[in-house]
Write a structure and sequence with these properties.
This protein has about 60 residues and is mainly alpha-helical. Helices cover about 60% and strands about 10% of the residues. It has one domain. The longest helix has 13 residues. It starts with a strand and ends with a helix.
Length: about 60
């Protein structure tokens, strides 16, 4: 199984946010175990921006990387 995440889903997953639904979390978990998780390049740029501007924790980028 493979999934493509948007910026919100990636950040919410990395930070363990309750904003991400249980079915979405389960799907991402399954993809990390058995497949590939795709993240658009622009999402990485957005996450770096959010970390640099202290909108989210810096650890999120390291988890996603």
């Amino acid at each position: 199984m493979s999934v493509v995440l948007d910026t919100h889903a990636a950040v919410w997953y990395a930070l363990g946010s309750p904003c991400l639904s249980a079915p979405a979390r389960d799907t991402i978990d399954a993809a990390t175990r058995t497949g590939i998780v795709y993240l658009p390049a622009i999402s990485l740029v957005e996450i770096v921006y959010l970390v640099e501007n202290r909108k989210i924790q810096g650890g999120a980028l390291h988890i996603i990387w």
